[in-house]
Design goal:
By secondary structure, this protein is mostly helical. The chain has 2 domains: 21-189, Orthogonal Bundle (Preprotein translocase SecY subunit), CATH 1.10.3370; 204-276 and 341-438, SecY subunit domain (Preprotein translocase SecY subunit), CATH 1.10.3370.10. The chain has helices at 2-19, 21-40, 50-60, 64-71, 75-78, 87-100, 104-110, 114-144, 159-186, 191-217, 222-244, 280-299, 305-313, 319-340, 343-352, 364-399, 407-445, and strands spanning 246-252, 255-258, 261-264, 267-273. The longest helix is centred in the last third of the chain and has 39 residues, at 407-445.
């Protein structure tokens, strides 16, 4: 009986998908945009010796550059026009969101609704341009100083190479920012997250092949590879479970009489997710670590000794890197949760419509209770994100496991997949409701 019901639901969903023309257009647009992005990750910067660059990147792939290459979908290894990927945009978004908490003008813009949001997005774009120029110039200078022992990476160093590199990388990042916004508006899912997701997924087969090659050469034992795959499956299961976990608060609505009829008296639930911030904290924390280290990692080639030391301390598995990464995840868990959920506004809305939490007085006491519950949920969520992101990173540092099997990459892949599937279901439900409304209107005319 259960299997028959599931089959019937699947047939209904498939039929709704077949009739959802708008959804199919959105899916095709999203797929086309991601294909354009992946093609761009293979268009190299002019004036680069790819053989010499590949050798240097191979020597540093266990450090911060390996993490940057993870988010760029392999574009950094190939030093392409999308080498910086979308990370400067994420860094600019962090800066603007942090400034809204300390700047009254920006906070006022955030409360103005759609007009204020557009203004803040414009400031984010300006910040993206500035950060990209700085990072691109640092990369161009670092590339000029790189050498694999037989010759330099740059064939003709000088002002023209730096200028073209800055212009190319800045243009690539701005194009990806625009492409992400187009996916969000005209496609399915969050465009920025999908771009990062596509880069990680595209490199997973190569990462798996590299791991099996390490097993064939004896660098990794077969037992460890089996353990690694079991750990990946366990991490994915934990992510799915924790991302779906929520605390449901009972909300009661009083009865009210309108004329001779009684309304209300029903109860509902206010769901509070265990991880309200989603995948944002690890991405933001990684972005903040990558922002200063992009320049430092390249400049450490022949740079001052203190810069080499800093780069070494911030490599994967080092205590300083782990401490800063965990601190960033915890901070952004609380910060982003405070941005997306306001207990005072929620309590006011409940009071406005007559709802209340049993045993808690409406108004300020409800807001305090919501903040109390949300704080404790966020503590658990921050611990979960820290464990998922840090434990695999230690294995990566100690056993040369590819970055794509790390907790951060798995968290991004699973979370983005769940969010995108949820949006597809929302479009299907909306299409079904539209069909029912049209049928009801046709019957009403008869």
């Amino acid at each position: 009986m259960a299997s028959a019901a599931e089959q019937l639901a699947a047939n209904i969903n498939f039929g709704a998908f077949a009739r959802a023309t708008e959804l199919k257009k959105r899916l095709w647009f999203t797929l086309g945009a991601l294909i354009v992005y992946r093609i761009g990750t293979y268009v190299p910067l002019p004036g680069i010796d790819p053989v010499a660059l590949a050798e240097i990147i191979r020597q540093q792939q266990g450090g911060i550059l390996g993490m940057f290459n993870l988010f760029s979908g392999g574009a950094l290894n190939r030093m392409t026009i999308f080498a910086l990927n979308i990370m400067p945009y994420i860094s600019a978004s962090i800066i603007i969101q942090l400034m809204t908490t300390v700047s009254p003008q920006l906070e006022a813009l955030r409360k103005e609704g759609e007009a204020g949001r557009k203004k803040l997005n414009q400031y984010t774009r300006y910040g993206t341009v500035l950060l990209t120029i700085v990072q691109a110039y640092g990369i161009s200078v670092g590339l000029e100083g790189m050498s694999d022992g037989g010759g330099g990476v740059v064939s003709k160093p000088g002002f023209f190479f730096r200028f073209t590199t800055v212009v190319t990388l800045t243009g690539g990042t701005m194009f990806l920012m625009w492409l992400g916004e187009q996916i969000t508006a005209r496609g399915v899912g969050n465009g920025i997250s999908l771009i990062i997701f596509a880069g990680i997924v595209a490199e997973l087969p190569a990462a798996l092949a590299g791991t099996l090659e390490l097993g064939r050469t004896g660098a990794l034992s077969p037992v460890f590879i089996v353990f690694l795959m079991l750990m990946v499956a366990a991490v994915i299961g934990a992510i799915v479970f924790m991302e779906r976990a929520q605390r449901r608060l009972l909300v009661q609505y009083p009865k009210r009489q309108v004329g001779a009829r009684m309304f209300g008296g029903e109860s509902s639930h206010l769901p509070l997710k265990l991880n309200t911030a989603g995948v944002i904290p690890p991405i933001f924390a990684s972005s903040l670590l990558l922002l200063p280290m992009t320049i430092a990692s390249f400049s450490s080639q022949g740079g001052p000794e203190w810069l080499v030391t800093v780069t070494t301390l911030l490599s994967h598995g080092q205590p300083l890197y782990i401490a800063l990464y965990v601190a960033g995840i915890v901070f952004f868990c609380f910060f982003y949760t405070a941005v997306v959920f306001n207990p005072t506004d929620t309590a006011d809305n409940l009071k406005k419509y007559g709802g209340f939490i049993p045993g808690i007085r409406p108004g300020a006491r409800t807001a305090e209770y919501l903040d109390y519950v949300l704080t404790r949920l966020t503590v658990v969520g921050a611990l979960y994100l820290s464990a998922v992101c840090i434990l695999p990173e230690i294995l990566i540092a100690n056993y040369s496991v590819p970055f794509y099997f790390g907790g951060t990459s798995l968290l991004i892949v699973v979370s983005v997949t769940m969010d995108t599937v949820a949006q597809v279901h929302s479009h299907l439900l909306a299409h079904q409701y539209e069909g029912l409304i049209k049928k009801a209107k046709l019957r009403g005319r008869r």
